[in-house]
Amino acid sequence: VQFICYNQLCEAKEYAKEKNVFLMGDLPVLPSRDSADVWSKRDIFNLEFSAGAPPDMYCAFGQRWGMPVLNRGKLKAQDYRYLIEKIKYLDNFFDMIRIDHVVGFFRIWAIPVDEPEENYGLNGFFIPEDESNWKNYGKEILSVLVSNSSSLLCAEDLGIIPPVCTQTLVELGIPGYEVLRWKKNYGSDYSFIHPSDYRELAVSTLSTHDTSFWLYWWEKEAGTIDSDLFYLKCKSIGLDAEKISPMLFENLKEGGRLRWKKNISSEQRLLEILNLSEDKAKDILQIYRDTYGEKEKLSLLLGQSDNYLKKAVSLLLNGCSIFCINLLPDLLCIDAGIANSIATLRINKPGTQSSQNWSFALKESLEEVIKMKVFDEIREMVENSGR
Length: 387
Fold this sequence. Notes:
This protein has helices spanning 2-18, 36-40, 72-77, 81-91, 134-147, 163-172, 214-221, 227-236, 241-248, 267-274, 282-291, 294-302, 308-317, 328-332, 336-342, 366-369, 374-385, and strands at 24-27, 45-46, 49-53, 63-64, 69-70, 96-99, 108-112, 125-127, 152-155, 176-179, 202-205, 224-226, 257-259, 323-324. By secondary structure, the protein is of the alpha/beta class.
């Protein structure tokens, strides 16, 4: 089966090349604990820890992926042969390769395997723990990958990213990622950054495989917060979330989200209801600044439209990032009929184990998809952008 897949993927790359199309593949940051890689190369993996991610605004309890972390000493002693073999193999099939969770090459969140699973990623730590080592760790591995691959490497640099990671990507000429819903002026007015001010060395996009599709985010999630995150923050400062929530949020908890009431229109009003000082409520204030009025702020960029998704796609296409690559479902949802059947779905929900994760598929055949009229609109937008 692997031999047949290998041949078919090579043929697909050649076919795409004839059509002047680049194919983009993926380099996972780590393999599964029960994979052939870990079984056959146990010396370069530390089986005492499970990789994941620390808590953030999007996963209140952090993430626990289950994969063992790399044994960096053994990996380096073997001149990174394992990673070189992986990247060279991917070159057979792709012209561009996305490096998943690139920050994991600088420092990885490690969770002891005996930590109760219900704690997810709460009780982990970074390897290496000394932040001064992060740049050398990351740059060394990325330099090895760049010098041993014929593909253009791109880096998924989303989440809490230390400056040394961003700096290294620039130094090595590796594009990062710019996601419309997260590109804001953090620390000031939290307004959205116009795509003409994105990084040029980047891939701009509406969504990722770990988010809801853009149309669903726009209609249901923009201006909301994760209920688990709010309850966790309340617990950490001694607040009764059940008592406070009705004062702050609408009677809506769709998909685990809480929507701010419109009358919570200032930080002062929020502090009055919480009955807390600005310092003690700083985490909840941070969430408020990031999410309250989110949809209205993005509307300032998009302007009035009867198809906000189409407007958002056009905005990115006319931005300055060298690449603009969007999920196929996001593009198809420009057609209202298609959106009705797929907009509420998603590819993966990080930090969860579910039969729905990685099961998304269009009901239509490829032959039916390429005949969809929405592609005429997409083609027109691409041509008008000059890409």
